[in-house]
Amino acid sequence: MFVLTSSQMREIDRKASQEIGIPEVVLMENAGFCVFEEIRKDFETLDDKNIAVFCGKGNNGGDGFVVARYLAQVCPNVKVFLFDENVTLISKVFLDILKRLEVDVSILSEELLLSLKTQRFDIIVDAIFGIGLSKDIDGLYKKAIEYINGSGAYVYSVDIPSGICSDSASVRGCAVKANKTVTFVYPKIGNILYPGSYYCGKVIVKDIGIPEKIIKDIKVKILTAEDLDISKFYRFPDSHKGDYGKVGIVAGSKYYPGAAVLCSNAAVQSGCGLCYLITPQEALYFQNLRKPEIVVLPLEGKEGVISFDGFVKFDEYLAKFDVLGFGCGLTKNEEVEKILIHILENFQIPIVIDADGLNTLSSSQKAKKLLANYKSQKVLTPHYMEAARILGVDVKDVAKSPIDAATKIASEFRAICVLKGSRTIITDGDEVFINVLGNPGMAKGGSGDVLTGIILSMIAQGYSAFEAAKLSVYLHSLSADILLEKKAMQTILPSDIIEGLDSAIRRLIEG
Ligand SMILES: NC(=O)C1=CN([C@@H]2O[C@H](COP(=O)(O)OP(=O)(O)OC[C@H]3O[C@@H](n4cnc5c(N)ncnc54)[C@H](OP(=O)(O)O)[C@@H]3O)[C@@H](O)[C@H]2O)[C@@H](O)CC1
Ligand SMILES: [K+]
């Protein structure tokens, strides 16, 4: 499913009306009716309800007038609160209809808002701002939104909760906290990314009669099972371990031995033929949870961290790997930088760089340059802070526009970027997929190491870096969601996510 920006939505509306000839009033009528239908579906009866519809002066308010008209046909207690009588031309069509039908329409003022505190509404429709929100909210708008949020009513937001930026999902001063948001054509970024997604409540996407053929060149999509290629999950009966690829992992240190275990356990659990773990000897003390299928290549370390001299002894192995993982739990020092540069200068294996690999990259201009010119597939898996370090920006800037940040990283390094967060973004610099599966039980140290292991395994099994990243992000989250059916979020561990891959893969294959 596509995800739209406000300008894409406007362009679609423009084409529908100007090129195809569907009048804008028809689109507004359809939009308002869709919201009404959703409300009607949710309640057995509406005639005993007190309902308020808050309408702004833009077209979002116009949708609100349409909702109010339909509600007034089935409920005697519908009140419309208008912020400004100076509404858009299309909205005016519907406001005039309301007036002719003698629906209760009032212009909202501070006094009126205060008097509402003694009334109780069962349902409130928020049609104050939609995709036209252009600045932070203050004054009467702010007070009205605070009133709505404290009202105890069941709240429907039209298109997007008022106060949420449809392009960045950020809160502009304050925002309506809806129970349900009915959006049109396709969801907007503000409906999908956080914090906007939280304010939306349940998101319902409605068709308002815009022909599909005019919706073109949309690059952002919600990641669904239909976007995944599972053809390589089929195993030929006469196959052997060599058919499923060799993963090499450079990970772990005396300080973070578990990262190496989680990454390599995830790789073997998700199907690669062989997995080699290059880790400093000093990290082995802790590895009793490591799966026995993993081949360990203990490396002579320096103060518990991998050393360049120790590492180059494994060059012969590196040449044989189908994919190399670099970074989980390595820590960051000059030796790690030297090793990363050595790999980028001397090999051409598909590479997945995570954690300390990314931190090393962000402070090494040489490694950055080499990576951009590295002639093989690359996957970078930063979380927001790592992405900020790579881009040399504040983490708040990444959080404000994560799609832009991920796209920039992917383009700069000609790599696949997996920007990890509550909505992980996967992009090759052109197409963007947003993962909406997963749950806060995954917000634990070690989750990222597991994801890296799965991506490595998928590349080893023959998937392209982009396909592997999509598939792995999906399976990683699906595993955590399946675990949630039986476990509390607090008790879901990254190692449980590895074990849960079995159910996740089976569920994906079975559909
Ligand atoms: N054909 C279509 O396009 C269809 C569109 N549809 C519906 O239209 C919605 C988009 O409508 P819209 O473009 O009129 O914008 P909308 O969000 O209603 O508000 C803009 C107004 O608010 C004002 N304003 C903004 N921020 C403010 C603030 N902080 N504080 C105070 N004022 C502020 C802003 O002022 P300005 O920025 O111009 O100064 C302007 O006056 C869309 O979400 C969907 O619901 C559907 O009917 C389907 C067909
Ligand atoms: K709204």
TrEMBL record:
Start and end residues of each YjeF C-terminal domain: 224-508
Cofactor note as given:
Binds 1 potassium ion per subunit.
Catalyzes what? (6R)-NADHX = (6S)-NADHX; (6R)-NADPHX = (6S)-NADPHX; (6S)-NADHX + ADP = AMP + phosphate + NADH + H(+); (6S)-NADPHX + ADP = AMP + phosphate + NADPH + H(+)
Q: Tell me yes or no: is Secreted among this UniProt entry's keywords.
A: no
Keyword Nucleotide-binding annotated: yes
Q: What is its EC number?
A: 4.2.1.136, 5.1.99.6
Where on this chain does (6S)-NADPHX bind?
59-63, 130-136, 141, 159, 259, 329, 383, 449
Q: Which SUPFAM superfamilies match?
A: Ribokinase-like, YjeF N-terminal domain-like
Domain YjeF N-terminal span(s) in chain numbering: 9-216
Q: Where does AMP bind?
A: 420-424, 448
What cofactor does this one take? K(+); Mg(2+)
Keyword annotations: ATP-binding, Isomerase, Lyase, Metal-binding, Multifunctional enzyme, NAD, NADP, Nucleotide-binding, Potassium
- Annotated K(+) binding lies at 60, 126, 162
What the entry lists under HAMAP family is as follows:
NADHX_dehydratase (MF_01965), NADHX_epimerase (MF_01966)
What quaternary structure, including any partners, is listed in this protein's UniProt entry?
Homotetramer.
Q: Provide the family line.
A: In the N-terminal section; belongs to the NnrE/AIBP family.
Free-text function comment from the UniProt entry: Bifunctional enzyme that catalyzes the epimerization of the S- and R-forms of NAD(P)HX and the dehydration of the S-form of NAD(P)HX at the expense of ADP, which is converted to AMP. This allows the repair of both epimers of NAD(P)HX, a damaged form of NAD(P)H that is a result of enzymatic or heat-dependent hydration.
Q: What is this protein called?
A: Bifunctional NAD(P)H-hydrate repair enzyme
| Taxonomy of the source species | Bacteria, Bacillati, Bacillota, Bacillota incertae sedis, Caldicellulosiruptorales
